[in-house]
């Protein structure tokens, strides 16, 4: 059965349900996605993530271990996690155990483990993780790049939290975040597997009364810096970690997303077939890998990329990244590059839709970004027919990609 989008009436809200029936394997999965409830909604650094982690500590009645044993005894998974824009509950189980799994989610929603003991446990884990990240120089460079590109905004903040912000968090902070961000009126249900739509609707209708109504917020859009800054972060490192980014004046609402996809692939997403890899690794041997993507989200559109190199070749690699991007924008791509990109993007399509979760995720994204179901398939057809002239006109229309800023972790 193909993916579908249906809306369930609940109180004054029409709750979207993304659904696909697939009975090849007797498994059912459900995601309850709350929009505008992720990292970018933090009122304290790391609060959304800490809220999800506390919900993964089970119920107050059973505690973390007792609740986990309930799940393990029936081989079901009930968990919470966050992204930049959304907060997600995820439930998966064998078809025969799915009603049991839903009951456990209902228990969790009714009786979260709002205890100081659970919060202290989550704090210890998070502080340990943040302490480790101080010596993860990829993480350090990526965090610094966000600070440069999105100065003064929520995206520039350490949304995973800091040791200080985690230590200062209270149960009240988490309870307030959850009650004010997880509501029936900002929920999207994504459900699929060996289940009928009528059954899926029944389960969603059982969950919605356990949620309150929240104040819905519009997704903020952040402007990317075009100041071409370079910030060096001195650390005790044996190599340079170079992260770079630039504005991309292009909206997720545009209909020709396929052009951005091709440009992204050729510039830095094609592995050994990309410009960055060819110039920086293959021709000069300055790195094991160099990559970039063109991010096109509701909150921002921008180029970002990274590589590692020897300390002695740091400046050469940075200069080369700038030159590769400058040449890409000024001269466009070749007929051979376009042909190779078409073959890969069209030929690898089955790998991106072979599992139920992949298809549901694609359908969810099409809905979330206001696109009709089947948009991705239509884009694929356009990839096959796009001309070199059309692609180069598109690429040359984005000189802002050359406005690169760099965050470089290097030797003290």
Question: Can you describe this structure?
Answer:
The chain has 412 residues and is α+β, with helices and mostly antiparallel strands. It has 2 domains: 4-210, 2-Layer Sandwich (Cytochrome Bc1 Complex, Chain A, domain 1), CATH 3.30.830; 230-411, Metalloenzyme, LuxS/M16 peptidase-like (Cytochrome Bc1 Complex, Chain A, domain 1), CATH 3.30.830. Helices cover 44% and strands 21% of the residues. The chain has 16 helices and 11 strands. The protein has helices spanning 47-55, 63-73, 98-110, 116-133, 137-149, 163-168, 171-181, 197-207, 257-269, 275-282, 314-331, 335-347, 349-352, 356-368, 375-385, 388-396; strands at residues 4-10, 13-21, 27-35, 77-82, 86-94, 187-193, 230-235, 239-247, 290-296, 301-310, 405-411. The strands form 2 sheets. A 6-stranded mixed β-sheet has the order 1-2-6-3-5-4. A 5-stranded mixed β-sheet has the order 7-11-8-10-9, with helices on both faces. A hairpin with a 2-residue loop joins strand 1 (4-10) and strand 2. Helix 9 (257-269) crosses helix 15 (375-385). The longest helix is centred in the N-terminal third of the chain and has 18 residues, at 116-133. The chain is globular and about 60 Å long. The termini are far apart. The model has no long low-confidence stretch (mean pLDDT 96).
